[in-house]
Write a structure and sequence with these properties.
2 copies of one chain form a homodimer. The first copy, chain A, has 721 residues and is of the alpha/beta class. Chain A is built from 22 helices and 15 strands. The first copy, chain A, is globular, with a radius of gyration of 26 Å. At the A-B interface, helix 1, helix 3, helix 6, helix 7 and helix 21 of A face helix 1, helix 3, helix 6, helix 7 and helix 21 of B.
Chain lengths: 721, 721
């Protein structure tokens, strides 16, 4: 237990806030702060290498790149940047696509050009007409824009630019955000205010935020956005709304971002006046074809549809006795003539099969491997339950070699403390991507399934369920910006290290000072394990309160579907706790490759982080550290609380490196996280103690409230519900 | 008809927006931009008169005043302002309350101090110890803060400060915003996003916006805020929420702003577990007393309750056979020991009396004159129907001499184009305040009723239904900020001229350049008449579409209560149009003083702006300009459209005076307003033409769509509904 004690009073905080009154908006600028470089040597290197910029070409995208360089360099170098008409000067940043380069220059990047894909870029120090220049080039203008953002990142993070040959291409085609945004601007599981999309004022009012949203996404390589909730409303497909979507698509297009929509499967009935939505009915098929034509007439680069079908009450092909293949392929045929795709979600679980929800998506989808159209991609959540603080990787990854699978991560913190808890999610994403499916022997990681290299898929994709809302700081918590950022970086390259990403983000967002970067990065990297510790240690899962999912609710047992109840997942009784998914139980382990199944099946080899996910374990079971399971659980909860204490202590010393507004915001939020970590600890331990019948071990603080109190808490207006 | 043609394409606008990408937030700063003074002579005068600032005292409010002067003067003068420890220097701005002044200084403002009230202030050039100084003083620290904001306003508007003796006090005690904000953060009739109050993160997270909200309000003298919707939720009165309200109250207190809540009349049942909410039941009375005690224990300066009772389905004393006096007095007794008040709304109309809604509040309330407790104030909307573009003043004003009446204005544009139409509302407010009730002979203006001077009331009040939301620019439309601003200024002094307020606002918000101020002020001042022209000319009212109130809906006739239907209000038939409220009709005119009643009764003397409000008039009736009524109506609609065209043309020439982001925002919004003005014109004229059977007169453009088309439009997700 740390010695850290929170000395917190609201009054003190407010007093401290008073001198802050400065209409400060650094929160809004995300990782594109472009503050002046502080290190004098580095600044001098930059100044001697950057005497001006030269744009080759004048497409809208090149204009954006020019503007971004102008803003970025002016801020970073602290002086006006001149835009040169030509390359007669020296030490210029010259940027333009392959087709705009002269022969001499082209020759110098020929080799690199042959290695990049259409979205890749080259940043290379070259000599042209005897003059040293910095060239940013690519096969396309969008590639150039990505190069510009990557170049600016080098400067934002104090990297040398003296001799550059930085060549990179995205490893995944579709790098996309899913907005669970409703047409009334509420956001399902949104904790950063409300939807950015002001449908009422569209199409004629283009909010500045649409542009800044596109900038931020382009800066990290995100190239697609699904504007609407997977729990879809058919009205988005009516002409009134398509016109509004078109206006957004126009803004996003120049930033290389395609727009996608969710398709409500019953739309032909609801807005088309048909009597059925049966995917094998020709009138239904034709309705979707006409609808696709209508959309593509207005939005020629429309990305396609995302569909949640026959899942949690959403309509789908099964309503008509058809299957997922029938539904997905019908939509795929409608958008195929225009190059569109269908992202079909595998998040399904039956209300008629109470045995083990963890097996169901696998059972429902894997048999269809090879039957989907070429332009269908199956969207699979990272784990088999639902975005828990920790889940083993979803067994579908690697199990459908003939079908491209798209990774669905959740950036919004539905189960991880909303926007009040600092949890650095790229650490979680990395854990999943590095997981070994063993489907083609050791080293068959999830990342290789996702990026297509494993099974040679043409379409590859990765999805982040957005944490973006209309809060001024976009994501509710200043550090939640890192999760948007990190998702984008991992979408571009799923083999990146989350620590390196955190390093970049901290430097771009706050400061390059290592006295700040090192301790705060450590805090970020530990934060995911911390939230697991104080919410769901040792493989526990789905024990949050019901509906809003805010705070603990292990006692909830009265919901209509068994698999909605926390008691279904923890199965605590006097003998022990945990869900037996081994071959002696639900046998969900059998869905994995044999090597993995064996590992998880055996309580002795099962990693303790998944212990209660796969096994029902006696309270007296001895953990690897020699503690009993009961003591181990209790100490993990305490550890989680203590770690949040340490986070508070760390942050409290960072006031000199961060503007006062953001410093205080994070401080207030860490105080809340500490309070809520205790709430989780106390509520869960008091509840489980009823079954274990044991005392709390030494080192675990006594609960401050009774179990009755915790069970009585109600949050009728918790956000995102 | 103007020659102005809108050459508008979204594409052009977006292209134009590209170079804008600058994370610009001037929108957020409201009228507190504090940009550097451009006029060199004036700047030089300021510099020679302001060498530093000296704070007398160090209360939190004085600290705020110091900070504001520091920020404001640094910006305006373009240099760092030094805070002096004492007044030894010369040309200092010295500020502090009466009690902090030394004898010599006190003597110089003694006379002024005797004329101001507790919130008043004095800004005076003085000589102390032989040195010329600028003194800002008041009886209270809040008065000093008001003085500081008023001083800064002088500088923001290029006024001379060489020899000042500016003495002012608010003429109304309670200057308050009503937020129709729900606990789920939706805002009833809110068009600027969602509620500022992030209840979920309160009390521990203090959003910077709370502080900036308080600043903005204090800067215009607003001293109260009702946080919650008049259609109330009892949960706001539970301990969980009172703790959150307490946190907001703490932020607002130092800015002189008291917090008030709406009281749901049935709260004793809903959260108190009682069987009744009968105001004469002692357990109910006691419940409210205990509740008041609980609130005041946490918030000692809690302002009191606002109540909408027995109105549009809200519970109230009539549910128990009691009356408004019983209900209001019970609550008044509960808060009286703590100095609290009850604001009881008079917005009532019976569903059982379909004769004329315009008479009902009068009939229900006036008989109770003199029966309310001293700490009850009756809150009356400006007109007898509901915040229409134009209404004659409410007949209750002046009719209840023994009861203080509070003016309720609506700043949010429920019936005036939401946040897409530029309508400068202080012009409307001024028209109402200047209206003559004739209750004590000529000159008995509404303003005199409101400010208490007419009947010597101690409590006086004025309410603005807020147009504030979590949009970055606070109010959705940059010019809607002027309505918040103007309401505050008129609340302080209801005799101010709306033109002078517009002048100040434009200079503070945009520019002091007269080439900007003069034409744009003219545009603002005309804008209210313009919206009347294109929506409801000649006394038409309540012909908007139903539910959301967006756009025209004169055809709506199917709502369950007769007085909810537009047809009830316009009564168009083949003989004519208008609601006969004269003595030959509903006799609503009789509710006014005889002089006023006579004026309105007689179609010859009734001002044409109220013609169809009070009379059913033949289509062939000759207006004062010689046109028939039909032609006159049609030409008014056209005039409204043309005037919006002129607004567009005016604004289009203002690009040099305004930052690009706000310039473009206003431009896009004016384009929408133009489109929607035509929609109103076309829909209303096509509909009324069915009854008049006449051709559109020359000069009126042909409608672009059919009536069927307009009637078919649906807006299921229009905001604020």
């Amino acid at each position: 237990m740390t010695k850290f004690i929170i000395r917190f009073s609201l009054y003190q905080l407010i007093l401290f806030l008073l001198p802050l009154v400065i209409w400060g908006q650094s929160d809004y600028k995300l990782w594109l702060q472009y503050n002046k470089v502080q290190n004098k040597n580095i600044l001098s290197e930059y100044n001697s290498n950057i005497k001006g910029i030269v744009a080759l070409g004048n497409s809208e995208t090149i204009q954006i790149a020019t503007k971004e360089l102008e803003i970025g360099l002016s801020g970073l170098l602290g002086k006006q940047i001149t835009i040169q008409e030509n390359s007669k000067g020296q030490s210029l940043v010259i940027f333009g696509s392959e087709s705009s380069l002269n022969k001499d220059v082209l020759e110098q990047v020929k080799k690199e050009l042959s290695t990049i894909n259409n979205e890749g870029f080259i940043i290379k120090s070259i000599v042209s007409d005897g003059k040293k220049q910095l060239l940013i080039t690519a096969k396309t203008d969008i590639g150039v824009l990505y190069g510009v953002y990557n170049f600016l990142r080098l400067l934002q993070t104090d990297k040398s630019i003296a001799n550059l040959n930085f060549v990179d291409s995205p490893k995944i085609n579709i790098r996309i955000l899913n907005h669970w945004d409703n047409l009334d601007r509420t956001v399902e599981r949104g904790y950063a205010g409300f939807s950015l999309w002001n449908w009422h004022k569209l199409p004629d009012f283009i909010d500045e935020r649409y542009i800044d949203y596109a900038r931020a996404n382009a800066s990290i390589g995100i190239n697609g956005t699904v504007l609407t909730n997977v729990n879809a409303n058919a009205l988005i497909l009516t002409p009134q709304y398509i016109e509004k979507v078109e206006a957004l698509a126009k803004v996003f297009r120049t930033y290389g971002i395609k727009v996608y929509l969710t398709a409500r499967f019953s739309a032909p009935i609801e807005i088309g006046g048909l009597k059925t939505a049966d995917p094998l009915d020709p009138t239904v098929q034709n309705w979707w074809k006409e609808k696709a034509k209508e959309i593509y007439t207005r939005i020629p680069d429309f990305g396609g549809f995302l569909v949640k079908a026959n899942s949690e009450g959403q309509p789908g092909p099964q309503n008509y006795g058809r299957n997922h293949v029938d539904g997905a392929n019908m939509l795929a045929d409608a958008v195929a003539p225009y190059g569109g795709i269908v992202m079909w979600r595998a998040f399904v679980y039956s209300e008629h099969d109470p045995s083990d929800r963890a097996k169901q998506a696998y059972e429902e989808f894997v048999p269809y491997d090879g039957q989907f159209r070429d332009n269908v991609i199956i969207q699979v959540k990272n784990g088999a339950i639902d975005f828990q603080p920790r889940e083993p990787f979803h067994p579908m990854f690697g199990a459908m070699p003939k079908t491209p699978l798209m990774m669905e991560f959740q950036i919004t913190q539905e189960y991880l403390g909303f926007s009040t808890h600092l949890v650095y999610l790229p650490k979680l994403f990395q854990e999943v991507l590095e997981s070994d499916t063993y489907r083609k022997g050791k080293g068959s990681t999830v990342a290789k399934v996702i990026d297509g290299s494993f099974d040679n898929h043409k379409i590859t994709g990765i999805v982040g369920v957005s944490n973006i809302g209309n809060d001024i700081n976009w994501t509710g918590h200043p550090f939640a910006q890192a999760n948007w950022y990190g998702f984008g970086r991992l979408a571009w390259n799923p083999y990146l290290d989350s620590g390196a990403i955190a390093d970049d983000w901290l430097r771009m967002t706050f400061s390059n000072n290592i006295n700040f970067v090192i301790p705060v990065k450590e805090m970020m990297l530990k934060s995911r394990e911390t939230v697991v510790n104080y919410m769901t240690p040792l493989g526990l899962h789905h024990i949050m309160d019901t509906g809003h999912h805010y705070g603990p609710g292990p006692w909830v047992s009265n919901l209509s579907r068994p698999e909605w109840n926390p008691v279904y997942y923890h199965k605590a009784d006097k003998d022990g706790i945990g869900f037996n998914r081994s071959k002696t139980g639900s046998n969900a382990t059998a869905k994995y490759a044999p090597e993995v199944a064996q590992l998880f099946d055996n309580i002795g080899t099962c990693p303790e982080q998944y212990l209660l996910w796969f096994h029902h374990v006696s309270w007296d079971y001895k953990l690897k550290n020699g503690k009993t399971l009961w003591d181990g659980i209790a100490l993990k909860y305490q550890q989680g609380v203590d770690e949040v204490g340490t986070m508070n202590a760390t942050w409290d010393t960072m006031g000199n490196y961060v503007d006062e507004q953001r410093f205080k915001e994070v401080q207030m939020l860490l105080r809340i996280q500490y309070k809520e970590a205790k709430w989780w600890r106390d509520a869960c331990l008091l509840y489980f103690q009823q079954y274990s019948g044991k005392e709390l071990p030494e080192g675990v603080e006594k609960p401050t409230q009774t179990l009755d109190y915790f069970e009585s808490l109600k949050f009728p207006f918790a956000p995102g519900n």
